[in-house]
Each structure stands twice: as C-alpha cells, then as structure tokens.
Design goal:
alpha/beta, 8-stranded mixed beta sheet, 14 strands, binds adenosine-5'-triphosphate, binds iron/sulfur cluster, binds magnesium ion
Length: 384
C-alpha cells in the first residue's frame, strides 16, 4: 500500500506530498491543488478563547492541564494545535465543548466566545444545544464515538433530531445528505449498516457526518486519523478540507504530528505543559520557528532526503503538570536555557504580525537562528 509522507515541504520547493503546502506571492499559505489554506479563510472570528484555565484536583496536587490559553479561530480557517502527549491538547478540546469530567476537572477561568456568546456562562441546557450544533467534535477512535447497537441512520439521525428538530422524510433526507457530504457511497443502503459492518475509514466518515450534520461553525478534530492507515488517513484529511471549502467551517485540528499540520492547517499553536508557547502562520513557523520547543518538534519530523540517523528526538520528558518548575517549563530540556528561564515565565514576544512566542531568547527583538535542534543540542546548555 502506498504510504503518504507527512513531512513538511520547504517553502517554494517541490515537496513529496501529494498536495503540497506552498507559499503565495504575499507569503500566504495556499493549497496547490484546492482552496485549502489561508486563501479560503474569511476574516470573521468564529471562536475567541481568552485565558482559558482547566485544572484537575488530584491526590498529588492540582494538575494545571490548560493554563492560560488564548487564541482565535476565523471562519474557514484550520488552526492546528500541536504538542507532545500530555501537553493539554485534549483537555483544551473538552474544555471548548464543556465536556471536562467534573470532578476531578474544573474550568477555573477564562472565556470561550462562540458567535458572540461566552459559552462558559451558558446553562447545561443551553450548552447541550450549542454542543453538536454550533461547535462539534470528532474523536480519535470512531468505535468509542459510535454506539455498536444502533445503525448509522439512527446515530446520524439522532444528532440531527436534537439540533434541527427534523422528523420523518425530512430527517431521512438530511441523514442521506450528511452521509453524502462525507462521500459515503450508496448512503441510502449504507445507513442501514451497524458500525461493525463498516471499515475503519467508513466508520470515521460516519463520525464526521455526525460532527457536521448540524452545520456547526467550529469543528474540533482531536487526532481524528490516528486509528486509520496512512492512505485512508490522507483521504480523510482531504475530505475534511473539501467539506471546509464547501461550508466555511472553522476547524481546530489537534495532532502530535507536525507533518500533518503542514498539510492541513493555516495557522498553528504549539502547546507545551498546558500553555501555548508559539503561534503563527504555518509556513512562517515551519521555516522560521522561534521557540526552541517548536524547533525541536519540527526537527523531529523525518525528512525523506535525510538519512534517519540525523533524526532528532527531544531529550527528556515533559514535566508533571501538578508540579511545574518555576519559570519556563521547557527549561530542563532546552539547549538555550539561561538563568532567567528558571526564575520567571517568559512573556510573549511578537515576531511579526502573525507569529508570537514565549521565550526569553527573543527579548529585545532578538530572533532565534534557524539552526536545527541537532546543531543547537551540540552546543553547551546555557551558551548564549
Ligand atoms: N481526568 C483527569 N484527571 C487528572 N488529570 C487529567 C485528567 N484528564 C487529563 N489529565 C491530565 O491533563 C494533562 C493533559 O492531558 P491531555 O489528555 O489533554 O493531553 P494530550 O495533549 O491530549 O495528550 P495525547 O497526545 O496523549 O492525547 C495530562 O497531564 C493528564 O494527565
Ligand atoms: S525561555 Fe529559556 S528555557 Fe524556555 S524555551 Fe526560551 S531559552 Fe529555552
Ligand atoms: Mg489527547
């Protein structure tokens, strides 16, 4: 089976991926074969998140899984949230859906403004209309999202009934329409199938159909392709982009794979230990990452033209979120660490209109060289 590379393509150079991300003349990211990317982004804000904080009370202490997250998502835009395991990506998604398990979790602060309303202020009754209606989510494992004892028609139909109050023939037509939107062949007969009768790719499409059936403004896709093989994964990613260009959906795409970010996203937010450490236009971040952690993540994406022995892996483990060190959480692993890093959390420094990063190395308008982490790691820690 042909494997599809997830490596990022260099700006202005032909890449190896089937659909490259390429830089337009104004530097905007445009898709070379369709309308995905910044070219399809409308200017209106779909979602605005401000200083979101979600903590878990555990016997070890307070786990600050999401600690002061702020970002915006425009209509028609795909924002990637990328970071290592345990960095708080899924807790962010669950917080936006108001599905954090409580106890032990609590959203302790912040605002999540969707269509002009702070959804953290809504009653649970109001939220159940918003959830799946204006904002919805696709999970990593379709088997946990689908109920094995109901057929496809029931499961897609249920979501539509709740949010659009349709019944009878109109409901059935809408189910068929939703399945068609996710390119399920012969939807009239496939909707009688149960989850176990479908392939993994088809199951994931059904989950996608449920997610978009109520024409939400925002779709959160939390590692939606992890359980799929690479060819089906590529087809599913393409499908999401097609649906986006048809509907103007804003997508938050969660992944640990920077290669997928390169193909899917317009902008990216890099998370480390519950915080965003860098955000920016995806091409800018790929070519000139400014936070050492972003550099490390990008350096650890395999490149076809390089031999595997040069593959960089980030030394050390992410910190326990109930016991974060003072200062920058990346300090114990950072080859550029300085004394100040261990004492005080770095402020966010603007790099240009789109790119911002929280790192002391960027103070006073300085920039981090575009050195690879393999070279940086060879330098003695603390070398300035
Ligand atoms: N119910 C819970 N109780 C206590 N801690 C939790 C709970 N759920 C999540 N956490 C903690 O929150 C942190 C962030 O978890 P999260 O699931 O968001 O990580 P992630 O970035 O999605 O990782 P992955 O890439 O593995 O999916 C982790 O340290 C995790 O242990
Ligand atoms: S603030 Fe210091 S420790 Fe943190 S990423 Fe920047 S240089 Fe490294
Ligand atoms: Mg997760």
């Amino acid at each position: 089976m042909a494997e599809e590379s997830t490596q990022p393509a260099e700006a202005g150079e032909p890449g190896d991926s089937e659909e490259q991300v390429s830089a337009g003349s104004d530097g905007a990211v445009v898709g070379s074969t369709d309308h995905f990317g910044a070219s399809a982004v409308r200017e209106e804000i779909a979602l605005e998140v401000e200083d979101l904080r979600t903590y878990f009370t555990t016997r070890w202490g307070t786990v600050k899984a999401v600690d002061g997250l702020s970002f915006t998502l425009r209509r028609g835009e795909t924002l990637g949230i990328v970071g290592e395991s345990g960095s708080g990506k899924s807790v962010t998604a669950l917080s936006l859906m108001r599905l954090v398990q409580s106890p032990p979790g609590h959203i302790v602060g912040g605002r999540v403004v969707l269509n002009g309303r702070d959804i953290l202020e809504l009653s649970e009754g109001q939220m159940s209309q918003v959830r799946g209606g204006e904002i919805s989510m696709i999970l990593q494992d379709p088997m946990t999202a689908l109920n094995p004892v109901f057929n496809v028609e029931n499961q897609v139909g249920e979501a539509i009934k709740i949010h659009q109050h349709l019944r009878g023939r109109t409901l059935l037509d809408k189910v068929v329409h939703s399945l068609r939107q996710v390119r399920i062949p012969a939807p009239e007969s496939r909707m009688k199938d149960y989850p176990h009768q479908l392939s993994g790719g088809m199951r994931q499409r059904v989950v996608g159909a449920i997610g978009i059936s109520s024409a939400p403004d925002v779709l959160i896709a939390d590692e939606p392709t992890t359980s799929l093989d690479v060819t089906i994964q590529a087809a599913y990613l393409r499908l999401l982009r097609e649906i986006q260009s048809e509907t103007g959906l804003g997508i938050i795409f969660i992944t640990h794979d920077f290669g997928i970010v390169a193909k899917m996203c317009d902008r990216v937010a890099v998370m480390y230990a519950g915080r965003i450490v860098e955000t920016g236009d995806v091409r800018q971040i790929f070519n000139h990452p400014q936070h050492p952690y972003t550099q490390a993540l990008i350096s650890s994406v395999p490149k076809l033209e390089e031999k595997t022995e040069r593959l960089y892996s980030i030394e050390g483990q992410p910190p326990a979120l109930y016991n974060l060190p003072p200062g920058c959480a990346f300090a114990p692993r950072c080859p550029y660490v300085m004394d100040v890093c261990r004492e005080e959390y770095p402020p966010i420094f603007d790099q240009d209109d789109s790119q911002r990063a929280a790192c002391w190395k960027l103070e006073d308008g300085k920039r981090l060289e575009d050195a690879t982490m393999t070279e940086a790691a060879a330098a003695p820690a603390g070398a300035d």
